[in-house]
User: Fold Peptidase M23 domain-containing protein from Leptidea sinapis.
Amino acid sequence: MASCVRLLLVWAVFLAGGARAFVDEAVDVIRLSKEIGEEVLNSWDVLGRPFNSSSGVELPFIRRHERRVLARLGQVARAIERLEEKVEQNGAVARLLAGTGRRETRLELRLHELGDLLSRVAAAERQMRDYVRLQRELERSTLQDFAAWCVSHEPRALSGLLERVHALVRPPHQYLLGRGILQLMLEDLEERHPDVCELQLSPHQLIYDMYNTISLAEIKGYAMMQFSWMLLKIYGKGNYTQEASLTRERYVERTARAAAAARRETYAQVTRLLQGYIENEVDMNTEQTCKENCGYYTLAQNHGCFKDMYCARQPTCKGRIINCQYIDSDMTVCPAKKGSTRRYEWIEYENGNRFGQMTSECHRGKNKVDSWWRWLFWHCSYCMCLCDESGPTSDRYFSLWDATSDVKNNKVVTGIRLVKYGRVFHLQISEGTLGERGAVTPGGWVPVQKFDVNDAGVREGQDYHTLSYERRALDLDELDSPRGQILTGVRFSVIGAHLHFEIRSTPFNYTTGRLAPERNQWISNDNTDGSDAPRSRLELYKPDVPTRGPQPLQVDSKHDQYVEFTNSDFEKDAAQSTVPFVDIQPVEPMQGAALISGAGMIHRGARGSGGFVSPKLFTYDHSRHVHADPPPASLQTAEPDSMPMSNF
Ligand SMILES: *[C@@H]1O[C@H](CO)[C@@H](O)[C@H](O)[C@H]1NC(C)=O
Ligand SMILES: *[C@@H]1O[C@H](CO)[C@@H](O)[C@H](O)[C@H]1NC(C)=O
Ligand SMILES: *[C@@H]1O[C@H](CO)[C@@H](O)[C@H](O)[C@H]1NC(C)=O
Assistant:
C-alpha cells in the first residue's frame, strides 16, 4: 500500500507538471510505426525492377532476394522487440490481463479475449524470428507456408487475429457490441480506485500502456504480412503489389482509429475569436466600389452582398472585419463540415498557395471563387481577412466569479481545473478539510455556478469577461501565498484589457490546522502595460492547432507574462482555429490530499504550435514547519506558525 501511495504521488506530480507526461511512450510507438512503414516500403525496392513472376524464377535469384528480405525483417523485428521491452517494463497490462477471470463482467470477458489474441500474435512473431534465424537450414516450403498463413483470409490466420483485436478496441457495430475496451477500462478504473492502486498505476497510464501494447501487436502483424507478400512474390506466387497496398491501407486505418479510441477530451477551445474570412472588397464599403486594395481594409465591416457572388454562398461575418490581405485573385474553397466551428477546411489559390490541410476529402463540394475586373481598371479582389464576430457560435467568455473553498468549515483548495459550460469558461476547485500538521482530508469538486451570458442580470465586466480583438490577453502568473498562509480560492479578474488570475490566501495555524478566515486576502501580480517593467508577451510563432504534430509541449511561459488568444496560422490552418487551446484536465496532487499554497496560469507549447493554457498548483512547503516540530521542552523557542510575511 505504501508504494501505491508513492506511485500515486508520482502521478500527481506528473499531472501538476505535465499533462502530456505519458505521451512520450506513445510517441515512441507512433514513431516506430512510421519507421517500419518506411522500412517496409524500402524493402519492396530491394526486389528491384519488376520481374516476371509468372514464368518461374531462377533459384540463385530467389535465394539472394529471400536473404535480403529476411535480413530486413530481422532488423524490423529487433526494433519492435526493443520498444516492447520498454513498454512492458512496468508490466501493468500483463498483470491486468493475467488477473482477469475472477469476475465475469463484460470488461473481464473482453480482456480475456484480448489476452488470448495478443498471445497468438506474439507466438506467430516468435516463430517468424526463429525462421529468420534458421533460414539456411529451413526448407523453402516452410517459409512459404508461414508466409501464406500470415496473409491468409482464414479467420484464425494472422490478419483475422488483428481484425479481431481491432474490433475489441473499436467495435464495428457500437450498438450491438457496445463500447470499446479502452472506454470500458477507463470507466471501470474510475469506479474502482483500489484496484488501480493494486496495479500501481494511474488510469491514464494504463490506457496508454494498453494502447501501446495493442499498437505493437498491430505493427508486428503489419510487418509480418508485408514481408510475407514479398516472400510470396519472390517465390513466384504472384505480383501482390495491390494486395500489399491494401494491407497498408487497412493498417493505417486501424491504427488511426485505435489512437482516437485512446484519446480523451483533455482540452476545450475558445472558438471563432479571430477567424480567417474571405470577403470581396466590393462588399466592405458602402459605395460598392473596388477602388482600393485589400490592404486598405484594416478595420471594416460587411455592407452587403454584391450580385450574389461568393458572399451568397457563405455565412457573412456580422462583426468586424480586420487586417485584410491580398493573396491571389482566384481560388478554390472547401467549406467546413456542417456543425464545425471552422468556416473553411482549406483554400487553394491559383498561384499555388495552400491554406489549411488538404488531406481530407471535401464533403460539401468545392467552391470556385474568382475575383473580377470592373471596367478594365478596377479589380474587385477577394481578400483574406480576420472576422471578429461575437455571437452564438463564438465561445469567448470567462467567468469572473470567485471559486473559493468553504473556509468557515475549515476547507482549503486541493485541486483546480478549467471547465467550459455552454460558452463560458470557469475556474473550478476541489476542496478538502484541513487538519492538524498539514493533514488534508480530500473532499470533492465544488460545483460551478453555471450561467449563460444572455441570462437576465448577468453583466459583462461583472460576471464575465468577453474576449475581442483588443481584449484577448490572458495574464500568466505563478502566485504563492505568504508564509503561514494557504490557498483557499482562485478567480479571474480584468485589469486593463487583460484577463487576470488571482489567488486567495488564508492564514492558518499549522499545529491545530485552524484557518483564520477573517484574515483572507486576494493576491495577484498587478503589473500592467503602463508600468516601468511591463509584463512580456509570450509569442506564438505561426501557431498550428496544438493537437497536431508529434512534438511534446513543454511549459514555455514564465511568471509575469501574458499570452494573447489569436487565430491559428494562415498556411497551416487557414486561420480557422483560436489558439492556445484550454487544458481542461484537473490538477489535483495526491488525489486531493495535498496541502496547496499557490496557483498559477501557465502555457505549454512549442515553436509552431498554439499550445495550451492550463492552471498549475504549488504544494505547500512543509519544511517551513520543521522548526515547529520540536521536542516539547523547547516549545517556547519554536517559530510562530502563522506569521504573515510579505508576498514572495
Ligand atoms: C504488378 O502490379 C502492379 C499494379 O497492379 C503493376 O503496376 C506492375 O506492373 C505489376 N508487375 C508485374 C511484374 O506484373
Ligand atoms: C512472363 O513469362 C511468360 C513465360 O515465359 C511469358 O509468356 C510472358 O510473356 C512473360 N511476361 C512478361 C511481362 O514478360
Ligand atoms: C497555534 O495553536 C496552538 C494551539 O492552540 C497555540 O498554542 C499556538 O500559539 C498557535 N500558534 C499561533 C501562531 O497562533
